[in-house]
Amino acid sequence: MLAILWITLAIVETGDSNDATTTAVGPFGTIPAPVCGQIQLMMDNCFHNTTPRVVADMLYTVKIPENADDIASRCLLFNRGMDCVQHYLDNCVDQKDRKIVENEVYGARKLYEFLCRDKSFQREFLRHKTCFHHVHPDWDRCSKDFVNIMKEEMAKTNEKTYNVQYMHFCCFIVGRHYGISQH
User: Fold this and answer.
1) 103, part of any domain
2) How many distinct structural domains can be found in the chain?
3) What is the pTM of this model?
4) Three-state DSSP class for residue 155
5) Is residue 81 part of a domain?
6) Measured distance CA(183)–CA(170) in Å, rounded
């Protein structure tokens, strides 16, 4: 999820490389000042020296939580990442583009709100973990395809503005979903 969020942020990135000097304090320690235009650096710094320690290796693995401890670890990771991303958005991205990102991650935020805070939802989620394991390979493949398509589109930034590129990408995904070929 955070990989998709990172790529979404890269699309709406303003390209402004001004250094932001504002740090913030979140529930898991100090959130480093973002360097506008340097999303990868922001993500790397986000999980460095956190309290409690957030295992950043989990960023690069997709694993269905098996128990309440796994859920707690994923929630810690997701919430820290969202705190850092929000800090970056507040300091580096204009309001219009910030709204695009907020819309993109709305569903994930709501899922994690329920998963992280609602114990009955956690029990229900864990009751269906075998189903999630069954669909996980397809979901993982779809997520990787999405990330690869986004990376390919982002590489074309010298040909189009970010907003036009984002619109074309959305049209491509909708067209692909409905079986419409692009000419």
Assistant:
1) yes
2) 1
3) 0.61
4) coil
5) yes
6) 16
Which neighbouring-strand residues pair with 30? 25
Cα separation values, 143 from 3, 8, 29, 136, Å: 9, 13, 30, 10
* DSSP code per residue over 57-89: GGGG------SHHHHHHHHHHHHHHHHHHHHHH
Please give the chain's pLDDT, 183 residues, in tens. 555 555 555 544 444 444 445 655 555 567 777 778 777 777 777 776 655 555 555 555 667 788 998 888 888 888 888 888 888 888 888 888 888 778 877 887 888 888 899 999 999 989 998 888 888 788 777 777 776 776 676 566 554 555 555 555 556 555 554 554 444
Best CA proximity match to 156, nearest among 168, 172, 141: 168
Among 45, 49, 44, 38, smallest CA distance to 9 is for 38
Report the C-alpha gap between 83 and 63 in whole angstroms: 22
Question: Structural domain of residue 131, as residue ranges?
Answer: 2-136
Q: Is residue 165 part of a domain?
A: no
Q: Which two three-digit tokens encode residue 147?
A: 């990330």
Note whether residue 161 is domain-resident: no
